[in-house]
Amino acid sequence: MHNGKARAFTNIALIKYWGKKDQQLILPMNNSLSLTLDAFYTETSVSFSKDYTKDTFYLDGQLQDEKATQKVRHFLDLARNQAGIFKYATVCSQNFVPTAAGLASSASGLAALAGACNNALKLDLSPKELSRLARKGSGSACRSIYGGFVEWEKGNSDQTSFAVPIASNHWEDELAMIFILINDKTKEVPSRNGMQRTVDTSSYYDSWVKSADLDIKKAKDAITKNDFHALGKVTESNCLKMHATTLAASPPFTYWSPGSLKAMNKVQAMRQAGQNCYFTMDAGPNVKVLCRKKEVEDIYHELQKDFPAEQLVIAYAGKGIESLEME
Ligand code: DP6
């Protein structure tokens, strides 16, 4: 029996990962940059045993069906190959989210699974190697190995594509992110399919890749200078450019719902009224608002005029992956 457990926090990209150049290895087209957050995390334990006759996956205590187990099994195969240990596994994952609004994240989920496998199979991976392994489960997971600001260096091979922490002098501790949870879901296009359709068909895709490289530079410069407005501006414009690529895909699609637009308009109106906040959005309708910790209460209060408290979640900068003892 080989057992291991780990906890990983989710991360939100300020400069997005949007498109792969290698779908098998999960090598991205562009570098991305994220902030790891404290409010959402996953704890995962894994046991490999010769007595098991198949891989089994429990999420929040519920046995998962074949479809939901597929991504986990694919990842277990990678870890088993790396360890040279070929035993079936039981995986138990618990998502810790502040509300029941379905905010599960593949970033924290796959990072925690990578950490649990590293411990169980005694792979003894360095953070860089763990980031590479997590990347092959889900791209964004490679960034959740570290806390604070993180850059995923795209690389051009399995060896050279991994995340690294960005030196920031702990500036992230002065920032906050408010999630506006939007429930009026549009037709779901999973991020994996959405980004591939965009790479394959969007006439805006080349410009996206070019401008993402420039945005990375701007964001890193803003972090070095602790320049909140510069970081906010590039975060919001990078997000809008990513979402523009989906409208130029064939068939076109969007992650924006009426509620997302209401939230984005609200943030822009607040800014015009002098409040310091910027938004970003991922492959779903929720809107995330970047602000400074010292202003988070005022901004929360203003958002509450349009969105009920159940739809608002405040998060701060979070830590990197942690190993846990098995109970
Ligand atoms: C829009 O990491 O979920 O959130 O690598 O296919 O598993 P796969 O995709 P995933 O994509 C995340 C896309 C994004 C932007 C980001 O997190 O950088």
From TrEMBL:
Gene3D superfamilies tied to this protein: 3.30.230.10, GHMP kinase, C-terminal domain
One protein family per Pfam: MVD-like_N
EC number: 4.1.1.33
Top-tier EC class: lyase
Residues annotated as domain Mvd1 C-terminal: 179-313
InterPro entries reported for this sequence: GHMP_kinase_C_sf, Mev_decarb, Mev_diP_decarb, MVD-like_N, Mvd1_C, Ribosomal_Su5_D2-typ_SF, Ribsml_uS5_D2-typ_fold_subgr
Keywords in alphabetical order: ATP-binding, Lipid biosynthesis, Lipid metabolism, Lyase, Nucleotide-binding
Source domain of life: Bacteria
Record domain Diphosphomevalonate decarboxylase-like N-terminal: where: 8-163
Family: Belongs to the diphosphomevalonate decarboxylase family.
PANTHER family documented for this protein: DIPHOSPHOMEVALONATE DECARBOXYLASE
Protein name stated in the entry: diphosphomevalonate decarboxylase
Record gene name: mvaD
